[in-house]
Write a structure and sequence with these properties.
8-stranded mixed β-sheet; 5-stranded mixed β-sheet; 16 strands
């Protein structure tokens, strides 16, 4: 019988792979808490409308990549392809749009997109993200970016990434920019890809995101939004960058970073790296002032980012070490009970401790070495009678006698 394998585009997280991913998520959880973010967990699947509204029906994710299906009750549901839309839906569904704003939310978990698997990209992948819901001030834009930078510093990967930033302006700025893009791309319509010809009618800003090589040539000479900003939008952009400088976050301007949906405005940014082969994005976000409204709530200015845990974990200089256990080794049947008591005393003291389920002293010591134990505690009849254990340092090869009552304190 053929052994079953993971579905294409998915993988098991075991050993070093899991430790890398867990370290990224736990570091982000810890640093975001320092900034006042509270963790939320939303369902892994939602009504398909949550993501169709949140991502736009002309986006590649909605058109080509979502795992959508009709459940047995006839409802159209989708495995979440990203986290922001669900967080905004939760704000509305739980009646939180009018109280204690702004809400600062952290999330982490699996996402799903049907795309071509490649290095660092899977059909089930994992993201961390933060959102500030209900703040229109440029300081909140700068703070979410600073938090993302702080997380990368804590992971030891900040020197390998670069923050690129752009402004999308306000509604008036975007209208003027959209008109300029339509005029430019219409003059070159015969050179556009099929998908971008559709985007020209529906949402011309999407063309700037095109991966088609022919489109990229045209995009290189396309108008930039900086030439179409209102004074208010230009001032907002200046303030965000001044705050970033105050926070000590280095950045460079990239006028080609865009977000295609109408509710995106002002700040758009990406942390990019060239340490994963071709330059790639590891963290991206921006301001969205209409997404909560798309979910049926009131207009709620918001800003946030999301980051791929797989990609961040690949940038780690080394995998976090697994916790090394202390092996408790009873010698003789009479020692098993006291050994189990000592085992639990160590665990209550916060010490990782293991006991082999069977075997003589030699075999139990062999297992202690196989699992990389840092020490072994040996208990025989003589030790039990004297109320002590033999503590063997498996790295140094030394051994000493320690009173049982002092063992947890010595090893914690």
């Amino acid at each position: 019988m053929t052994a079953l394998q993971p579905v294409r585009g998915t993988r098991d997280l075991i050993g070093e792979d899991f430790r890398r991913m867990h370290h990224v998520a736990e570091t982000a959880r810890r640093i975001s808490a320092l900034y006042g973010f509270e963790e939320w967990a939303t369902p892994i699947f939602e009504d398909t409308g949550v993501f169709a509204r949140g991502l736009g029906d002309s986006s590649d994710v909605v058109m080509k990549e979502m795992y959508s299906f009709q459940d047995r009750g006839g409802d159209n549901v989708t495995l979440r392809p990203e986290g922001t839309a669900g967080v905004c839906r939760a704000l509305v569904s739980n009646g939180l749009t009018q109280t204690n704003l702004p809400r600062k939310v952290f999330y982490a978990g699996p996402m799903f997109r049907y795309e071509r698997p490649q290095k660092g990209r899977y059909r089930q992948f994992h993201q961390i993200g933060i959102e500030v819901l209900g703040s229109a001030e440029p300081l909140s834009d700068a703070e979410v970016i600073a938090c993302g930078w702080h997380i990368q510093q804590a992971l030891g990967i900040a020197e390998g990434t670069v923050l690129e930033i752009n402004t999308l302006g306000d509604a008036e700025s975007r209208d003027a920019y959209r008109a300029a893009l339509v005029a430019y791309f219409s003059a070159h319509q015969d050179r556009l890809s099929h998908d971008s010809k559709i985007r020209l009618e529906k949402n011309p800003l999407r063309i700037l995101d095109s991966k088609d090589e022919g489109d990229r040539v045209l995009v290189a000479d396309a108008p930039v939004i900086g030439d179409h900003l209102t004074p208010a939008a230009a001032e907002f952009d200046r303030a965000v960058k001044a705050y970033l400088t105050r926070f000590g976050v280095p950045f460079r301007e990239n006028p080609r970073i865009v977000r295609g949906l109408d509710y995106y405005s002002h700040t758009a940014f990406e942390f990019v790296t060239d340490r994963l082969g071709a330059q790639g994005t590891v963290m991206a976000g921006g301001r969205y002032n209409g997404l909560v409204e798309e979910m049926g709530g009131p207009a709620t200015p918001s800003v946030g980012w999301a980051a791929g845990i797989e990609r961040l974990s690949m940038l780690l200089p080394e995998a976090p070490a697994a916790a090394r256990a202390v092996a408790v080794i009873p010698v003789g049947d009479a020692a098993e009970g006291p050994a189990l008591d000592l085992l639990q005393a160590l665990r209550r003291a916060g010490v990782v401790a293991e006991i082999a389920y069977r075997g003589n002293l030699k075999r139990r010591m062999e297992r202690a070495n196989r699992i990389g134990a840092r020490a072994a505690l040996i208990l025989g009849d003589d030790e039990i009678a004297a109320g002590v254990a033999q503590l063997r340092d498996l790295d140094a090869g030394t051994q000493e006698t320690v009173p049982l009552a002092e063992v947890p304190g010595r090893l914690s």
